[in-house]
Design brief:
By secondary structure, the protein is α+β, with helices and mostly antiparallel strands. About 30% of the residues lie in helices and about 20% in strands. Helix 2 crosses helix 4. The longest helix is centred in the N-terminal third of the chain and has 18 residues. The protein starts with 5 loop residues before the first helix and ends in a 7-residue tail after the last strand.
Length: about 230
């Protein structure tokens, strides 16, 4: 028998879970998916892959709150092993390099050649408006590890909730927000522009005072009501 395709397993779990509001059924679907994923993946990686897909699904349609609540309870009950140093920034997820990404139309492309220093979510009102979602997801990488190609991005400025002027790099053709200009030796990349988002696991959450009420954070994650201290 052929081994299950991880993306098919995840998609099937999400589809069945979104069709019901019964938490027991959803729990069964998640348990079944985790069992299949662990044929090829470690327990930690299986949790990360499925968790990222669930976060994306709920962000796309906040009506699926039961799915997120069941997943959050499973995370709290699970005794997660301490990640090794090279996996800390990605929440225990393994990843290969280079990681590639780009804008919607493909006119801007990039490569990331080192492990990100951080994966985080921002729940400020600006990010909610800019992404038309509940929050934005960003990754922090060393400036030297980010290599951009294609057309020059268009810089757009806005006044952030913190009172500081922020600049976004967007594609001049399709308008996708790809990254922000380098600052203090690092660059903040919009995680959704990665070609492979399966390894994403945010471990820091900022501007939580304006988060949506259904958002639940993982045990041990860093949370800040406003911007984190410098």
């Amino acid at each position: 028998m052929a081994e299950p395709n991880p993306m098919t397993v995840i998609a099937d779990c999400i589809e069945k879970s979104e069709a019901t509001t019964d938490p027991e059924l959803i729990g069964d679907y998640i348990a079944e998916a985790l069992g299949l994923l662990q044929i090829d993946e470690t327990e930690d990686d299986a949790f990360g892959m499925l968790g990222g897909a669930i976060v994306d699904a709920v962000a796309d349609d906040p009506a699926h709150t039961v799915l997120f609540e069941v997943w959050s309870q499973l995370q709290k009950q699970r005794q997660r092993p301490s990640p090794s140093p090279e996996r800390h920034a990605t929440g225990g997820m393994a990843m290969k390099f280079p990681q590639t990404g780009g804008c919607q139309c493909g006119k801007i492309r990039y490569e990331i050649t080192e492990t990100p220093q951080l994966v985080y979510t921002c729940h400020c009102k600006d990010c909610q408006r800019l992404t038309s979602s509940a929050f934005s997801i960003g990754i922090v990488v060393a400036e030297s590890a980010f290599h951009r190609s294609g057309v020059e991005p268009r810089p757009l400025q806005r006044m952030a909730d913190s009172g500081r002027t922020n600049t976004r790099w967007v594609c001049p053709e399709c308008g996708s927000w790809v990254a922000s200009p380098p600052r203090d030796g690092v660059i903040r990349v919009r995680a959704g522009t990665l070609d492979d988002t399966s390894w994403l696991r945010p471990t820091r959450h900022i501007w939580t005072r304006s988060k949506q009420p259904w958002v639940v954070f993982g045990a041990g994650d860093e949370t800040f009501e406003k911007a984190p201290p410098p």
